[in-house]
Amino acid sequence: MTESAKIFDDIVNDRRAVRKFHPTDYDPEAITRSLQRSRLAPSSSNMQLYELYRVSDPEKLKLLSHYCMDQNTTETAKEMIVVVARPDLWKRRAKSNYDFVVKHYANRESHKGMSTMTYFKKLMPLLYNNDIFGIRGTLKKLFVQVIALRKPMVRQVNGTDIRIVVHKSAALVAQTFMLSMSAEGHDTCPVEGFDSLRVKKLLGLPWRAEINMIITCGKRIPEGIYGERFRIPESEVMFTI
Ligand SMILES: Cc1cc2nc3c(=O)[nH]c(=O)nc-3n(C[C@H](O)[C@H](O)[C@H](O)COP(=O)(O)O)c2cc1C
Fold first, then answer.
1. Which pLDDT tens digit goes with each residue over 146-170?
2. What region does 77 belong to: left with phi over 0, alpha with psi -120 to 50, or beta?
3. Using CA positions, which residue lies closest to atom 21 of ligand 1?
4. 64-83 as b/e, with b when 16 or more CB fall inside 10 Å?
5. Quick one: which atom of ligand 1 is closest to the CA of 171?
6. Domains of the chain: residue spans and CATH
7. CA 31 to CA 44: how far, in whole Å?
8. What is the DSSP annotation of 81-135?
9. Which residue among 191, 194, 225, 237 has the greatest number of ligand 1 atoms within 8 angstroms of its CB, and so is best to mutate?
10. CA distances from 183 to 10, 12, 33, 41, 179 (A)
11. Against a cut of 0.90, is the pTM above it?
């Protein structure tokens, strides 16, 4: 095993869901660095359809904790990060990617550059442009079912599928952030027990934005770990075929 794998082992083993944090001991810079690292997480089509809201104001933290059902982990958190999925920003993100490719491949007759441009100009609108009644999504589903009779085809093409796509990528950002916090000698707890509507209002988010998860931050105290770690046996979850 390499040295870095050993260090990574320590980081992964050290990360626990922490429900009680130390009242004073923590370094806000560790959060800043972890937020920066989290943005290196992969995202579907590199669309980066997420936003990260850092809540550090004591009054707002109190309110946010209340919206998280006053859980132990939110009540003692020094700061909280709200990871937001933004499927509604697809046009802006596709354009950013498109502009990047144009700039990057400006003076090259590159096949890769050209196909990537088509990808962001044609395929992304086809996938992400969904109406609230689900009509476009249903038509797309029917279309891919027919194509899939003859060859392998991506079948996740309607609005619900796209929401899942966006949440998957947002969760990878969240996990990268939490592992970085562990590497910084800090602790976190992912939280999905919250009133999403109230949290969205607190952050001033539009209705199509969705809260992916909230991450509490601080440094653990011994009572902050609720016992031994439990994992289902490997034989039940890992398969080699
Ligand atoms: C998406 C997600 C949502 C979670 N929501 C909560 C929550 O609302 N409150 C809480 O105390 N823990 C929450 N957890 C923490 C899990 O209970 C915890 O990760 C699990 O019990 C495994 O423990 P470990 O992280 O210490 O290994 C959540 C975890 C995930 C991944």
1. 999 999 999 999 999 999 999 999 9
2. beta
3. 17
4. bbebbeebbbbbbbbbbbbb
5. 1
6. 3-84+173-225 (3.40.109.10)
7. 25
8. EEEEE-GGGHHHHHHHHHHHHHHHTTT---HHHHHHHHIIIIIHHHHH---TT-H
9. 191
10. 9, 9, 11, 16, 6
11. yes
Joined tokens for residue 115: 């196909």
What number of helices (H) and strands (E) belong to the chain? 11, 4
Q: Is 73 in the pocket of ligand 1 (CB under 6 A)?
A: yes
Rounded-to-integer distance, Cα 178 and Cα 186, Å: 9
Side chain identity, residue 152: P
Q: How far apart are CA 113 and CA 214, in angstroms?
A: 37
Rounded to the nearest angstrom, the distance between the alpha carbon of 85 and the centre of ligand 1 is 19
